[in-house]
């Protein structure tokens, strides 16, 4: 079965086509600046990529271009759209309704729409892709895979805010967590690396990219995670502030003459590494400036490392220990310096890093020394693969039920 995986933003669309159950990527692509006359469509494989600039005015048109590319004589990898047996969508917020991936129905779409207030920048865009895909491939089953689903195993004392309980009862104000598909995938890879069943392990998973989240995983289940009701809570990130004193909001709004929307933009898009350094939210740029002696870049990186490490310490306490610490996502996978700094201040847990293993090698690997009480792993994330797996499994199950 061919499974098309989609990640739809308000003006962008990322996609990958998988052959399942082989789990091989046939092709991938991204369309940016949807809604304009100069939309950019990049597509191909790791070794060969093509790019095309053309008018693409909405998501339906973008998805039509995707299907046309997949089946074209020049760049195509399938002979016709009928080879696509399932479409898997990344959906950011599933609220309390969805604790696992589901086949999309009218009722599921309404639930996603109802939760748009919890993720106003993401769920409406995800719905755009779902509904556009229904028009482009009307007879193909579609599956929603939720970023929040993995964290629905958190106990109530972990996910509730210490606010009047009526706010939870009326509006479901609580912590939900994100990056769940990534944390779920990486946790599933741990047993193969450490030769121990996940049911007997305490794992701390650090997804460190432009967005950052740390998750405590006990017996394969998320019991706490750093992001909250929105992705703004938690660790300092590329452009997001992470945890703040909530009284700061009113103080800054009054002193700077900001509206709430302007404040929200500042906290989400102009804070974090970017806000402190004044240079960039990209860790690679920060490290280049740090190496050249930039005081603010050095400060930004030190704050970044400290706040990630602080959450790791908190989750070691929450689980009364930790067996495995894993790093994933763009920065987590590719910054030996960040990993080394974090681990050098966790020696009280019995952690000992293997310097050579940390600085060299690629792919899944253990970077702790044999003497370390904690296994430290680098695991490249594969969120799209998890979406393809879920879509494939659900559609196969659907077909069996119909037989």
TrEMBL record:
What pathway is this protein said to act in by its record?
A: Metabolic intermediate biosynthesis; acetyl-CoA biosynthesis; acetyl-CoA from acetate: step 1/2
Active-site residues, Swiss-Prot/TrEMBL: 147 (proton donor/acceptor)
Q: Cofactor comment in the record? A: Mg(2+). Can also accept Mn(2+).
State the PROSITE patterns in the record. Answer: ACETATE_KINASE_1, ACETATE_KINASE_2
EC numbers, comma separated: 2.7.2.1
Q: Where does substrate bind?
A: 90
Required co-factor(s) are: Mg(2+); Mn(2+)
Show which residues form the site (Transition state stabilizer): 179, 240
- Which parts of the sequence bind ATP? 14, 207-211, 282-284, 330-334
- Positions annotated to bind Mg(2+): 7, 383
**Which keywords, in A-to-Z order, does the entry hold?**
ATP-binding, Cytoplasm, Kinase, Magnesium, Metal-binding, Nucleotide-binding, Transferase
Question: Catalyzes what?
Answer: acetate + ATP = acetyl phosphate + ADP
Where does this polypeptide localize?
Answer: Cytoplasm
Q: What CDD domains does its record include?
A: ASKHA_NBD_AcK_PK
One example of the protein's molecular function in GO is: kinase activity
Q: What is its main location?
A: cytoplasm
Superkingdom of origin:
Bacteria
SUBUNIT field = Homodimer.
Any idea what job this protein has?
Catalyzes the formation of acetyl phosphate from acetate and ATP. Can also catalyze the reverse reaction.
Protein family according to the UniProt entry: Belongs to the acetokinase family.
Q: What name appears for this protein in its UniProt entry?
A: Acetate kinase
């Amino acid at each position: 079965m061919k499974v098309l995986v989609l990640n739809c933003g308000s003006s962008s669309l990322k996609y990958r086509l998988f052959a399942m159950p082989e789990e091989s990527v046939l092709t991938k692509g991204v369309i940016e600046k949807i809604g304009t006359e100069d939309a950019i469509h990049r597509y191909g494989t790791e070794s060969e990529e093509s790019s095309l600039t053309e008018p693409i005015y909405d998501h339906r048109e973008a998805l039509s271009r995707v299907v046309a590319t997949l089946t074209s004589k020049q760049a195509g990898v399938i002979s016709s759209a009928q080879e696509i047996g399932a479409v898997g969508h990344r959906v950011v917020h599933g609220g309390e309704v969805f604790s696992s991936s589901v086949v999309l129905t009218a009722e599921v779409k309404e639930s996603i729409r109802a939760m748009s207030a919890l993720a106003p920048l993401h769920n409406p865009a995800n719905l755009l892709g779902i509904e556009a895909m229904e028009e482009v491939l009307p007879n193909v089953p579609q599956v929603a895979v939720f970023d929040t689903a993995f964290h629905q195993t958190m106990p109530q004392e972990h996910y509730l805010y210490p606010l009047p309980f009526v706010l939870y009862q009326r509006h479901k104000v609580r912590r939900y967590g994100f990056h769940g598909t990534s944390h779920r995938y990486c946790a599933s890879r741990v047993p193969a690396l450490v030769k121990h069943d996940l049911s007997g392990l305490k794992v701390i998973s650090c997804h460190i990219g432009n967005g950052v989240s740390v998750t405590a995983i006990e017996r394969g289940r998320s019991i706490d995670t750093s992001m909250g009701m929105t992705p703004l809570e938690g660790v300092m990130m590329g452009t997001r502030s992470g945890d703040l004193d909530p009284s700061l909001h009113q103080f800054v709004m009054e002193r700077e003459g900001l509206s709430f929307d302007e404040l929200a933009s500042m906290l989400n898009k102009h804070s974090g590494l970017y806000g402190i350094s004044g240079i960039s939210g990209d860790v690679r740029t920060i490290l280049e400036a740090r190496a050249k002696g930039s005081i603010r870049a050095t400060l930004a990186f030190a704050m970044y490392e400290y706040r990630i490490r602080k959450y790791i310490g908190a989750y070691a306490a929450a689980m009364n220990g930790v067996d495995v610490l894993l790093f994933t996502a763009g920065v987590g996978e590719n910054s030996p310096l960040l990993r080394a700094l974090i681990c050098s201040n966790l020696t009280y847990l019995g952690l000992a890093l293997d310097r050579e293993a940390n600085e060299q090698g690629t792919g899944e690997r253990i970077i702790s020394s044999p003497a370390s009480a904690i296994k430290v792993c680098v695991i490249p994330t594969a969120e799209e693969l998890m979406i393809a797996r879920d879509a494939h499994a659900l559609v196969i199950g659907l077909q069996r039920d119909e037989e």
